[in-house]
Each structure stands twice: as C-alpha cells, then as structure tokens.
Amino acid sequence: MASQRTLARIDALAWTLIYGGLFLLVLGIASHDETRIGGWSLSVIGALAAVAGVVLIIVRSRLPQAPDSKP
C-alpha cells in the first residue's frame, strides 16, 4: 500500500512531466525552422516526457490507497 505522501508525489511528478513535455513539444515544433536537429530533439524528448506522465497517471490509478489512521 502506498502512503498519502507517496501518492501525492506521484501525482505531482506525473503532471509536471505532462505539462513540461507538452511545453517542450511545442517549443521543438516552433524551433524546427531555426535548427532541425534541435527542434526534433526537443519534440521527441517532450513527447516522451508527456507519455511518461500519462503512464504515471495509469500506474497511480492502480495503486491501492492506504487507509487513514486518524479517526
């Protein structure tokens, strides 16, 4: 069972990867005209980060939640 703190960290990491990855993807697409290799690199890294964030959300949804010990 995962603690509340662990689940919160996974949530924060997942959304950071998704938003950061999408930002890098758009930045890579916008910079394709200036530098092709740099633009493609940013696009690929951004897409991979966004996919990793989605995978973390799926993993998070399958983790059992620890019951609260406080009454």
Structure notes:
The protein is mainly alpha-helical and 71 residues long. The chain has a domain at 18-62. It has helices spanning 4-30, 36-62. α1 runs antiparallel to α2. The model has no long low-confidence stretch (mean pLDDT 91).
Strand and helix map with partners:
Layout: H1 4-30, H2 36-62
Helix pairs in contact: 1-2
Offer a quick outline of the entry:
This protein is an all-alpha fold and 71 residues long. The protein is 76% helix and 0% strand. The chain is rod-shaped.
Any key phrases for this structure?
71 residues, mainly alpha
Please, what is the average pLDDT? 91
Order of helices and strands: HH
- Considering DSSP H and I runs of 4 or more, what fraction of the residues is helical? over 70%
The total strand number stands at 0
Strand share of the residues?
A: under 5%
Largest sheet, strands/sense/barrel = none
Principal-axes shape call: rod-shaped
Q: N- to C-terminal separation? A: 19 Å
In terms of structural class, how would the helical and strand content be classed?
A: mainly alpha
Keywords: Membrane, Transmembrane, Transmembrane helix
Transmembrane segments: 12-31, 37-59
